[in-house]
């Protein structure tokens, strides 16, 4: 029994961490009112950078740090563009996404050929129990710290305030741009860590399109958890299990005579992404927790005549 | 009236430097000059009222002081030092705090969390718990009793304003500006707030009280400055000038002796027009806001509903207009074609029966500020068909603008350049026109000055008298309910707790409002 639990934990942890941490990052970014449509581009770019970094510095932790910092800078850029200028969050987010996709292939493809041809060793994390477990513990710890930061500290209050109503937050004395830059930097660092772990702990190699779609799954996880750091642990576990054990589930269903196509199996996490928030929205007590920040994705421009 | 009355010569009594001094301030918005060469001195230990009609530039003036707008020209000096105020944060650091009519608080956060955003002595990493503890101590000191751990949406309007005052006290402000912040409070609650304002003055603070209500300015302030069309037309000590002289300064040629609003009591006993039976409606957060309200309004009758804000009146009006789901009970309208049950029928069906609706927050639910005046009229299904006859709309717009005395550069001006009062007039004009059978209104004259408000109330009463329109007018301003209603109902915690006839004593109504 204990072995089974341990086996389950070890097999699910890599995918769990690289979804949970990204969803955590997304929650912080969106709580500050920035519509985070760039997430999948950032995630794909992050996997590419982690691959390039680990191929050149040959140390997974160093590669992870470099990647996270660079992706964090991308977050600062997005926060600046969506807050300081009256540009639509959708336009900034989606164009950043496609730039991310393009850059990822452009930068990592030559390196992947070099790795294959010259036999460059990829020093990714070893799949031993200690490493995997320590990453599980670290990500759960980051989740708890994020929760304390968001709901117990003045910084967290400021982040939630600029997402709810930046104009009021500003008149209460909050520097909207400053707070959003901090939130986006923190959030994108977490997205960077998650995408690095995708390469360094989960797939161990890069191929064209690696990580693509995982940003969106993290986005869905974050939203179906009402952007709450602790609830996100549960939804991440559901999604991670659905991805990791999709084919096992398919086998079980088939053994009961229910024929499910492969496509339906692949679509399962996304169906869950719709069902979970839907369930939450019909329960009145849950609804308030799950409502998005009031000014999520709205342009904040101060010199405007109003009543 | 000599200029000496408006600009008394004994200025020498004020030897000290003003806390805030404004010199030659200009500010314009596309198509409108909001401030023209405004001069103003505010001294420590003084309550200084700024009076003016709608669109006079009062709000623009304080918002400029508070760093929301950048002035086109002119200087602001604080304690004798020239200052360029770049943002509200900057203003706050310089000791200026603004308390506005709409509480500037974030609903989903607690009181402590809201105040934590303003209190600079707490670092970004300090805990909300420590702020809560600090607040409890301070509330004790000032005698304000509000649990800092309560989310703001659970507070009443007065409590929210008290939180704002507490914020000003905690920030050690040198000047607090109240932008129409006391206008909507019932008088007992208003006194409470006045006590804090006086306390603040006693401690040497300066207060700027922005209002369009003359009695309010006279009751508490030491000095009054009158703005008209963006210009200072008078500045004097309270008691130096009579109320009529002030009215003349505020309204100029528009001012005539306010006539009484029609005959004082009418006996309306005709056909029933609106019948509401045991209505239950939920508020935004799932709990019942309206709890079993039943009432009848007759044809040609105006029902005024009084109550302290947040007692279910908003949800009641919204459910009548079809904008909020009725959980239980029903609403029946009696129109020419017979009785129509309109419970949960949606706004399109209800409006089609000749129902006009004046909402509380015009910018959110009444008018589209990025569109022009003409477009805001043409959007109404009663006023245009599939193809819009723009010439007719233009004529309509022009006639309404002159009828309601709207200050606007043209009929094709975007609504957002209008002042709050003028914007409201456009909305009222449209809705009164379409209200063939029923008018639903929530704080219809909230942002209007005395003359305009009086005019609108008279229009509502005339329309009821002459055309048999029935109306439900909800207002947080008790004077308005008493002026406009044939019948007055008081709502408290979602229930109707009292019915009065027109002409009832104000004190009687206030008693049931707050208990």
Rg of chain B, alpha carbons: 24 Å
Oligomer: heterodimer
Question: Helical percent range of chain B?
Answer: 25-40%
The separation of the N and C termini of chain B measures: 47 Å
- Count of helix runs of chain A: 13
Largest sheet: spatial strand order of chain B: 6-7-8-3-9-10
Low-confidence segments of chain A, given as residue ranges, are 303-307
Structural class of chain B: alpha/beta
Shape of chain B: globular
Strand tally of chain B, please?
20
The gross shape of chain A turns out to be: globular
Rg of chain A, rounded, reads 20 Å
How do you describe this structure in short?
The complex is a heterodimer of chains A (307) and B (515). With 307 residues, chain A is mostly helical.
Explain this structure:
The complex is a heterodimer of chains A (about 300) and B (about 525). Chain A is mostly helical. Chain A has a domain at about 1-210. Chain A is about 75% helix and about 0% strand. Chain A has helices at about 1-30, 40-55, 60-85, 90-120, 130-150, 155-165, 165-170, 175-205, 215-225, 230-245, 245-255, 260-280, 285-290. The longest helix of chain A is centred in the N-terminal third of the chain and has 30 residues, at about 1-30. The N and C termini of chain A lie far apart (about 65 Å). Chain B has about 525 residues and is of the alpha/beta class. Chain B folds into three domains: about 5-15 and about 45-65 and about 85-255, P-loop containing nucleotide triphosphate hydrolases (Rossmann fold, 3-Layer(aba) Sandwich), CATH 3.40.50; about 270-355 and about 435-515, P-loop containing nucleotide triphosphate hydrolases (Rossmann fold, 3-Layer(aba) Sandwich); about 370-430. Chain B is about 35% helix and about 25% strand. Chain B has 18 helices and 20 strands. Chain B has a six-stranded mixed β-sheet, sandwiched between helices. A six-stranded mixed β-sheet of chain B has the order 16-17-18-13-19-20, sandwiched between helices. Chain B has a four-stranded antiparallel β-sheet with strand order 2-1-4-5, with helices on one face. Chain B is globular, with a radius of gyration of 24 Å. Residues about 1-15 and about 255-265 of chain B have low confidence and may be disordered. The interface of A and B includes residues 285 and 294 of A.
């Amino acid at each position: 029994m204990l072995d089974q639990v341990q086996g389950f934990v070890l097999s699910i942890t890599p995918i769990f961490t690289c979804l949970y941490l990204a969803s955590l990052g997304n929650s912080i970014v969106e709580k500050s009112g920035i519509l985070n449509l760039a997430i999948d581009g950032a995630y794909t770019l992050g996997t590419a950078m982690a691959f390039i970094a680990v191929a050149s510095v040959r140390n997974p932790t160093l590669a992870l740090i470099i990647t996270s910092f660079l992706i964090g800078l991308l977050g600062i850029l997005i926060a600046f563009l969506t807050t300081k200028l009256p540009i639509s969050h959708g336009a900034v987010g989606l164009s950043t996404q496609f730039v991310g996709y393009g850059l990822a292939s452009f930068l990592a493809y030559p390196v992947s050929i070099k790795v294959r041809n010259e036999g460059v060793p990829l020093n990714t994390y070893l799949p031993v129990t200690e490493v995997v477990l320590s990453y599980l513990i670290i990500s759960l710890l980051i989740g708890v710290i994020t929760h304390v930061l968001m709901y117990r500290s003045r910084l967290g209050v400021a982040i939630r305030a600029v997402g709810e109503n930046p104009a009021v937050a500003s008149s209460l004395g909050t520097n909207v741009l400053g707070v959003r830059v901090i939130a986006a930097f923190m959030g994108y660092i977490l997205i960077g860590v998650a995408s690095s772990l995708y390469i360094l702990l989960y797939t161990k190699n890069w191929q064209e399109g690696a990580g693509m779609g995982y940003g969106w799954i993290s986005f869905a996880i974050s939203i179906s958890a009402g952007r709450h750091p602790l609830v996100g642990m549960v939804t991440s576990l559901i999604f991670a299990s659905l991805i990791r054990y999709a084919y096992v589930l398919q086998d079980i269903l088939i053994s009961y005579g229910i024929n499910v196509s492969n496509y339906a199996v692949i679509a399962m996490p996304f169906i869950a992404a719709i069902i979970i928030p839907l369930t939450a929205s019909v329960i009145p007590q849950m609804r308030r927790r799950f409502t998005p920040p009031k000014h999520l994705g709205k342009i904040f421009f101060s010199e405007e005549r109003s009543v | 009236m000599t200029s000496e009355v408006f600009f008394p010569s004994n200025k020498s009594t004020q030897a000290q430097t003003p806390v805030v001094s404004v010199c030659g301030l200009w500010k314009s918005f596309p198509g409108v000059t909001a401030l023209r060469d405004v001069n103003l001195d505010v001294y420590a230990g003084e309550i200084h009222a700024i009076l003016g009609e709608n669109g006079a530039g009062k709000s623009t003036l304080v918002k400029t002081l508070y760093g929301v707008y950048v002035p086109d020209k002119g200087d602001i000096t604080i304690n004798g030092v020239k200052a360029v105020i770049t943002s509200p944060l900057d203003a706050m650091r310089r000791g200026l705090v603004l308390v506005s009519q709409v509480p500037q608080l974030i609903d989903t956060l607690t009181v402590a969390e809201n105040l934590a955003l303003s209190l600079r002595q707490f670092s970004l990493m300090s805990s909300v718990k420590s702020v809560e503890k600090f607040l409890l101590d301070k509330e004790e000191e000032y005698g304000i009793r509000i649990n800092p751990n309560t989310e703001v949406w659970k507070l009443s309007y007065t409590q929210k304003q008290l939180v704002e005052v507490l914020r000003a006290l905690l920030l050690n402000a040198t000047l607090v500006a109240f932008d129409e912040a006391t206008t909507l409070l019932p008088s007992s609650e208003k006194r409470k707030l006045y006590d804090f304002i006086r306390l603040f003055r006693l401690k040497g603070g300066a207060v700027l009280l922005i209002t369009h209500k003359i009695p309010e300015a006279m009751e508490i302030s030491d000095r009054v400055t009158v703005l008209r069309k963006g210009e200072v037309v008078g500045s004097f000590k309270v008691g130096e000038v009579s109320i009529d002289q002030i009215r003349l300064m505020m309204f100029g040629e528009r001012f005539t002796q306010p006539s009484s609003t029609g005959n004082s009591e009418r006996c309306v006993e005709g056909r029933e027009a609106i019948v509401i039976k045991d209505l239950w409606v939920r508020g935004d957060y799932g709990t019942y806001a309206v709890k079993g309200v039943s009432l009848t309004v007759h044809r040609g009758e105006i029902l005024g509903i009084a109550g302290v804000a947040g007692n279910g009146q908003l949800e009641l009006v919204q459910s009548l207009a079809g904008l909020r789901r009725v959980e239980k009970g029903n609403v029946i309208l009696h129109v020419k074609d017979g009785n129509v049950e309109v419970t949960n029928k949606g706004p399109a069906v209800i409006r089609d029966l000749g129902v006009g609706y004046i909402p509380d927050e015009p910018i959110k639910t009444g008018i589209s500020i990025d569109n022009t005046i003409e477009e805001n009229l043409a959007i109404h299904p009663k006023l245009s068909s599939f193809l819009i006859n723009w010439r007719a709309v233009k004529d309509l717009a022009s006639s309404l603008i002159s009828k309601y005395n709207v200050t606007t550069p043209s009929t094709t001006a975007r609504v957002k350049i209008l002042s709050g009062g003028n914007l409201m007039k456009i909305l009222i004009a449209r809705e009164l026109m379409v209200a063939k059978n029923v008018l639903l209104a929530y704080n219809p004259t909230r942002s209007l000055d005395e003359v305009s408000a009086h005019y609108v109330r008279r229009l509502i009463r005339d329309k009821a008298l002459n055309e048999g329109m029935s109306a439900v007018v909800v207002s947080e301003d008790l004077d308005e309910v008493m002026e406009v209603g044939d019948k007055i109902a008081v709502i408290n915690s979602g229930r109707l707790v009292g019915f009065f006839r027109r002409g009832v004593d104000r004190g009687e109504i206030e008693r049931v409002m707050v208990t």
